[in-house]
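Follow-up to my earlier ticket, as requested here are the two runs.
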Amino acid sequence: MKARKIVLLSLIAILLCVYIVQIASVNRGSVKQVTLSDEPDKFILESAVNGKVVLSKKDGVWYLGENQQYETLESEVNILINAMSSYSILQTVSKGGDEILYGLDDESKISVSAYLGDTVLCAFDVGKDASSVRQSYIRRADSSDILLVSDSFNSVFNITPDDVRVRTVYSCDSNTIKQAFLITKDVGVIQMVCNEEGEWGGFINGEYQENMTSDGIESWIASISILNSAGWLPDDYQPSADAVGVIMFQMEDGTSITDSIYPVEGEEGRYIGQSSVCPYAFYMSEYTVGKFLRSADDFSE
């Protein structure tokens, strides 16, 4: 009786092993690898939430917008390219009709198309990410089947124009700046001048300030030599409030940059910037504004 139990348990164990091997083989066989034959030079992403996002390549540079108005972050575009260029279809979860369940209804889906020239390389609707790590649901343009794929496509393709647009307003070498002005209502005009020996001196409303040190001024000059936006406003935006500060600096080659900073009305701690070297208005973080708008005492450090 004991020997029969041992034989029976051994047979069960063998059958279980065979079943596991068969399941694994079936699963491996059902996975389909999708690979694009060419690299896209254009993406169109459309969703009810983010609207239409067009990314296209020109002369080796990726741009945002129907008319290629704005330069983009290449690293962000590469994420899209890598996700679409190669992915695995793990299984078909539905033959259609379950759009809401999988985030593929009109209000939730993200329609993605990749092109090379005028040729569509790939097109599908992206649903929600699956509960499993790095898996999501898609529906290809030529089918009603809802597929489980091996990447978090919703996280990848759920982007806004601000997510991919370059944030740099300008960047210059602070060593080339030779004169600067900081104008505020409270203080008036603070002028800073660099002499031929590279030493800085300061004036407030035309009067020389002994307490404004060269190191203190130079530190401020370095902080204003780079400006990044905290988000872009519509192209035709014009501030309605008065500027809280204006910064102007001149380089040794005679060129100059002027920045104006405005408060966002009704939103404490939020600011809008405009620069003479950029045609678009942009948001400025409170931290950045704090670096640009200094009191006279800050230059004595």
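Run two:
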Amino acid sequence: MNLLLGLMILLLVLIILALTIAFRIKLIFSSNNANMSITLLWLYPLLKVVITNIETRMFLQFYLLNRQVFQKPINNNKGNGNNLDLVKEVKPKHVHVNAYYGFRDPFFTGVACGAINIASQFINIESLSQFPDFLADKDYIYVDATAKVKLGRALLNWYRRRRAVPST
């Protein structure tokens, strides 16, 4: 009985922490090897979730106290689009972006540089560092971005929004 009570209290504390403490998200994209990874960190090293794209497959890796608990391939099922509603509820804070890019034609590099500067004015980005390469031998893009997200709050808002909208 005491063990059950202890587990329920621990679960309640973890739920409260998930609602109040933000996850740190790190996104890395490289066009050179067509790889992308998204890392979610929460109370690091307590919880770490890594989603990687290796060649054409996506993998989910779950770490607890820096030890891999499991790894699983993610199926690319075409859904009904309800998952996009959850993405709309995520409101990232403290967004930092480092963008390295270059195109064989310096004109395109300049256009990309200007477009990124214009777009950053409409997006809530705390810092944007661009490193355009006007003398690139081949086309490439490398993006390293970090943000903080209150994922628990986003899930609650998504759940409330889903319940408020009648299904058709």
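The only thing I checked on run two: Helices lie at 2-20, 83-89, 106-120, 151-164. Let me know what else you need.
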